[in-house]
Amino acid sequence: MYEFTYHRATSLADAKAKMGQGDDPTLMAGGMTLIPTLKQRLAMPSDVIDLGGIADLSGIRMDGDTLVIGAMTKHHSVASSDVVKAFCPALAELAGLIGDPMVRNRGTIGGSVANNDPAADYPSAVLGLGATVVTDTREIAADAFFTGMFETALEEGEIVREFRFPKPKRAAYSKFPNPASRYAIVGVFVAEAADGIRVAVTGAAPCVFRHGGMEAALAGNFSAGALDGLKGDAGAMNSDIHASAEYRAHLVGVMARRAVASIV
Fold first, then answer.
1. Residues 81, 84, 88, 94: is their CA dihedral positive or negative?
2. Dihedral angle sign, alpha carbons of residues 86, 89, 95, 100
3. Dihedral over alpha carbons 190, 209, 93, 162 (to 10 degrees)
4. What is the C-alpha to C-alpha distance for residues 173 and 230, in angstroms, rounded to an integer?
5. Is the pLDDT reported for residue 80 higher than 80?
6. Between the CA atoms of 248, 141, 108 and 84, what dihedral angle is there, to the nearest 10 degrees?
7. What does pTM read for this prediction?
């Protein structure tokens, strides 16, 4: 990797100050994406600001009927939390499907969502549950947060503090994982919330997205059968050595039906 200056921030204010000191700084959460990127010399930041020492960014709590998860909360903590399991079992199950034990004990929900990898699991939960992303300066609705491949609405230097999840009536996540990386070749998060049905798809396209056709079908008849014949748009799907666009389009329908069948 290229040489850089490492900083361990002790507070949000400290992190912001250190961000302003370097020529080309970057933030590090769990490091599950950044460290391999640095090792492969695909990035050359002047400074790396580690957020791991900011205690206020970790933790899981209830705020009335809203579940609040700190951005630096580890995947394992979400998967094993009794609070999360009681609030939305699907969210805990999703966290338990991420990577392997090492990744789950180092990776963070904030790092995953801010990175917005096309095959990451958490973006589908954030979008599928209609969560709110709270940063150090504002609140961003999930529908406005994910903007493209590895792109979000975050501005330069903006730091994610926490996620606020409204309680769904029922929800489920179904994933067809890559057998090596455990990333989603296709993952579908289905939720019935107070504001209606939400179906969020990850792994299939350049960016997580909602499937409006499936949402409309389930609004009229919440059953796996209501999704018969519905799938992804192959023209908008990713195609690589792991799966063709046509196969991913087919899997969108399969995973959506499995998710609905598991909670009907």
1. negative
2. positive
3. -120
4. 17
5. yes
6. -90
7. 0.96
